[in-house]
Amino acid sequence: MQSEPTTVCFAAGHPAFAGHFPGRPMVPGVLLLDAALHAAAQARMNAGDGHALRCQITSAKFLSPVLPGETLTISCTPTPAGHTRFDISGDGRQVATGTFAFESVP
Fold it and tell me: How confident is the model at residue 52 (pLDDT cuts 50, 70, 90)?
């Protein structure tokens, strides 16, 4: 079952923009991955599987640059292999996609 989409926006004052890139800022991929991971973890908790403590990025593709202040939508969907697929879109285009593999740890 697909979770409810999450929205996120990185304000122009975010500290990451100072170095990525001066004069032409764009959201670093690591921030996109972090937002997707939080959305995926929340979706797992909402589905009753909140005990996963480790996560591996099994794939990630960055398809379009994201500018400061752009509102993004993150959707998370379970895959048949038991992983979580994420899709990030903004301004009518796909920005990033990939999958996470969560591992339960006692």
Answer: low
Q: Please name every residue paired with 87 in a beta bridge, in sequence order, or none if there are none.
A: 75, 97
- Residue 38 is among the residues annotated as catalytic for this protein: no
Q: Of 20, 38, 51, 83, which residue is the catalytic one? A: 20
Q: What is the CA radius of gyration of the chain?
A: 14
- Residue in the block written with tokens 């995926």: 40
58-86-55 Cα angle (round to 5): 40
More confident residue, 35 or 106: 35
